[in-house]
Amino acid sequence: MPQFLEHSGTSWKGQKVKHDLSMIDKLDPRLRVILVTAFAFVTVLSENFWVLSIAAATGLVLAFLAQLNVKRTLRRVIAMDMFMIFLIILLPFTTPGEALFTVAGLSASKAGFLHAMMILLKAHAVVLSLLALVGTLSATSLGHALAHLHVPDKLVHLLLFTVRYLDVIGQEYKRMRRAMQARAFVLRTDMHTWRSIGYLIGMLLVHSLERSERIMDAMKCRGYKGQFYLFDELALGRDDYRFMALFVPFLCALVGLNFL
Q: What is the pTM of this model?
């Protein structure tokens, strides 16, 4: 299982990625989940350009305090930007309002441009804060924090099993791909390739289903009755209260700025 959720999407060997412990790692997992959720809601619901700029800067500060790997974080932010780039480019040309500039006879509105910038700031603020506060949690810590926050057990179990067996499914996929390559299979743009890829995906699903049934049988043999028991006790410490004393008034200030 990847040691930190921040690494789980980097590679199937994410548990080998080094993460330097920071002041964020000393905070209670429950507090981190609650504060990042509140910050995301305040940011997404805001329509004030300056509030969103402050929120984006806050995301950068949190990423710095969490000592996130710069290259890995930039790679993920750029991947998000590539997903949104067409929306950001087209929005100024599809939103009515005062013309800001013209390209090939198409007018880009000032309102559309500001709206696109707001979406971009919201996305960066939320993603950076999630990577800093939640992404550096281990899957087990996050699962226990959600359970202590009374999130439905089924959702918690789904999260833990998904993170746990992503690597297993990845290894199965690589084994099947090596078997195909050993039989001289080469990717091409023909029906044989598409048929082979379809068989690969189908067999991967079948093997995943069979493995899940074996895992369930093994868990039942060990007394599993649909519930994970929590043996650890989470308690807020001095660092938690200090961080909360700074972050909560800051969130209230952001909410207040929206009404100015």
A: 0.76
